[in-house]
Specification:
The structure is a single chain. The protein has a single domain (12-215), classed as Up-down Bundle (Rhopdopsin 7-helix transmembrane proteins). 80% of the residues lie in helices and 0% in strands. It has helices spanning 12-42, 47-72, 77-106, 108-131, 137-148, 155-158, 164-185, 192-215. The longest helix is centred in the N-terminal third of the chain and has 31 residues, at 12-42.
């Protein structure tokens, strides 16, 4: 019996590592979401701030839970469906991450423009992935990067609104996500996808602590 799952060339050991890593991410996301919402409420933040951090938390939970389930399934039609959902959740996480930043810190027409741009890209990406994941795969990667760094487009307006330590966390998280794509694209040696998962976790942690510190307190 071979140890190859025959799905995206991932071995059984790789898929177990992939599932465990993002299963841990799902558990941390649930705990982190509770912490953000409670902290925002206790610090008497505005309702839109609480909504923003809730959306961010929900996007984290959805991404990591979907990824964990996808990598946990044996190769079948269900796994293919979850593969599509897994890629779609990346779009949702990016917009979810921008939500508390745009709602609470940037605000005004600039905040809504940045958020609206990312939401439009999310809708486009989800629709294209649902139609044909393989065909639009490279475009999706481009959209991920474009969305992730779209805050730079409004840098002249946004920079004074976010403290330098906050910018450091935002940029570090973006670097983790972007550099991780290198491992995501790599096919050999083994466990490259698992390393990609670790970079995603690191990026999420950076952005979680940013939102917790600058939106919830």
């Amino acid at each position: 019996m071979t140890d190859v799952c025959n799905f995206n060339d991932q071995t059984l050991g790789e898929e177990i590592s992939n599932a465990i890593s993002h299963g841990l991410g799902a558990a941390l996301s649930i705990a982190g979401t509770v912490v953000m919402i409670v902290s925002a409420a206790l610090n008497h933040k505005t309702p839109i701030t609480i909504v923003g951090v809730s959306i961010f938390g929900a996007s984290l939970i959805l991404l990591y839970l979907t990824s964990c389930l996808y990598h946990s399934l044996v190769p079948n039609k269900g796994k293919k469906v979850f593969q599509i959902l897994d890629h779609c959740m990346i779009f949702i996480l990016i917009t979810g991450t921008y939500t508390p930043i745009c709602f609470s810190l940037i605000g005004g027409w600039v905040g809504w423009t940045v958020w609206g741009f990312n939401m439009a890209c999310t809708v486009l990406g989800v629709v294209l992935n649902a139609i044909n994941l393989a065909k639009w795969h490279k475009l999706s990667l481009g959209l991920y990067v474009l969305m992730g760094w779209s805050i730079v487009m409004a840098g002249w307006k946004v920079f004074p609104l976010i403290p330098l330590d906050g910018w450091a966390m935002i940029l570090l998280g973006g670097i983790f996500y972007t550099v991780g794509i290198i491992f995501y694209r790599a096919k050999n040696p083994k466990y490259m996808h698992f390393i990609w998962h670790l970079f995603v976790l690191a990026g999420s942690l950076c952005h979680f602590f940013f939102v917790l510190q600058h939106c919830c307190y």
